[in-house]
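Issue: copy button drops trailing tokens. Both records pasted manually instead:
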Amino acid sequence: MKKLSAALPRSTNRPRRLELGLLTGAGYLLQGLRLILRPGLKRYLIVPITINILIFSGLIWLGFNQFELLFDRFLPETSWLHYFRWVLWPLLALAILLILFYTFTVIANLLAAPFNGILAAKVEQTLTGVAPPESPDNWVAGVIPGLLSELRKLVYFLIRAIPLLLLFLVPGVQLAAPFLWIAFNAWFFALEYLDYPMSNHGMLFKEQMQQLRKTRMAALGFGGAVTLMMLIPILNFLVMPAAVAGATIFWCSSNRLSGESAE
């Protein structure tokens, strides 16, 4: 595997802005998907993929059994929005799917957090040849830090998600609610998975947020790609390890570009 200087895109004009763009952010997820399928990392995928299969199987069952009920709840036939059901149906369907997906993703990430931290460390070592300074030595050592990190992100999510979900109940505002929910999920999934490589460098939550704001558009592109991949059958089983690997590539690339800009 080539080291970071050869594996990642090179900067042609310096200083280069860290606003890498939506497509560049999405590209990191594809790079992560390719990377985890290479020899040397596959053994770190067993637990995350097993957890994902179990979680998403439950999600698929729940979605098929409850979707019509949820759809009628948010867009009842007695509402004036009934006339726009054919327009709102795909948006509301996507929003409901994201709500369900996130609920199950929280559970999956809580269970897999220690293993994801190790995977992020191994990916960074593969890219740069150097292990991150605060990576867990084994999954047992990562249990407590991983759970605390996931709970902190869960609090951040709930504080913002609950008001957004309430917008689905406000007549008229319901039209904008799916778009806001999708954008928020893209941002949060970027934060969710970039936490692993950044935590391996001892970055606290506030510092992580500051780092993401420097690459806001790339973060949204990356999180949006994660959201899309979650909705694709079969690939959604790989989304967690692919997102961890992609986030690590994102982190390493952003650090390299920061160093080039400072030169």
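Record 2 (pasted manually too):
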Amino acid sequence: MAREQTRYVCQQCGAVHAKWAGRCDDCGGWNTLAEEAARLGPGLRGGKSRALAFVGLEGGSEANPRRVSGLAEFDRVSGGGLVPGSALLVGGDPGIGKSTLLLQVAAALAQGKGGTALDGVYISGEESLDQIRLRAQRLGIMAAPVRLAAATGVRDIAAALDRPDAPGLVVIDSIQTMYLDTLDSAPGTVGQVRASAQELIRIAKARGFTVMLVGHVTKDGLIAGPRVLEHMVDTVLYFEGERGHQFRILRAVKNRFGPTDEIGVFAMTDAGLAEVPNPSALFLGERRTPVSGAAVFAGIEGTRPMLVEVQALVAPSSYGTPRRAVVGWDGNRLAMLLAVLEARCGVAVGAKDVYLNVAGGLRIAEPAADLAVAAALVSALTFTPVPAETVIFGEIGLSGEIRPVGQPEPRLKEAAKLGFASAWVPPRPAAGKAAAGEHGIAVHELGHLSELVARFEDGARPRMQGPDRRAQGGGRP
């Protein structure tokens, strides 16, 4: 009898080694190699092989309509609804609301809020049935026909799902608690997560139901387990948010059936997650009187225009090395912007502490926020507020020029809808200028960063006397 082959798999990165070692050569982790049996396919064991049947690109198959949940924010991120036979992976920090979100989605589909009712089951490996019922009672969805089960064995789950009358939706909470008894490793290890997910996805595609997997994240914010897990599923969603804020952002980072730049905004309440159809009004709800160091940025998240407040604080440094603290933006881009302000516009800010914050817990990634950040920094430095009811957007180059950005018209339209009267924008073509006049918003075009600084210069000169002026070495504000 042939000896069964074994291999050693790193439980952090999934790298496979031929023999055991104290340190993984790929990720550098210590004592992370675990022995696993190398499972070979039937053809590799000497069994009969089956020839593949190839088909052409032409031809069709019966198109199954998407399964709309009725939760507009979730449907937006998923690409318009759930695709039959697909697998979704939802990750997020502990306690952020992953289980709450998926239970609400399962209840909405079971109740037919999107048009057609869908039979759904919720399988939990972390909570008991009574705990799930308590959450459903708090969410007000006790009447939803969702079937519950508490199980961790993939063999038992497969026996219940791999049948002709399989449900239309299966929620697994979470994939790190599932295990296959054919592997010797513990639940949550790389081998167990990979094998369990592979088996569940295989059944989902064979039976045509949608499987939604909850994934734990590491301290670095990545989904725990092997990276191949994200390659196996069709859609990867991250549920983000700050514990100090009620807002939650559902963001797609991979979607085979839809865009990957859409976001859904929710607010965590006592009755669960509430949809936020107009995030701009929510993120700007705390604005009262104009203060220095605050600017409103008109951004785009996917196809949705969104207005958010950017806050900056410039203070004298008490240490030899000035501090740069950034929340919600790229710290490297802030360093570049400070260098452009000082080199191209003469704004002496290098010796001061700089703090930058995006209000509401939102994270901005697009370069169009450069001009709004620069306006907030110069406003904080000169103690001059940005003019009231003004939105700002534009990308800044290393030479100080302000470059055009994509989709300016939806940004201006959203600003006009929320009552903003003026906008500071990059230069635009004649067609864009004509369209902006229809929104009833006054547009001021800026071609260079020095033009932005000049707008604060007149009001800043009386304030730049005394200690602040001497600290800057007599430079321009």
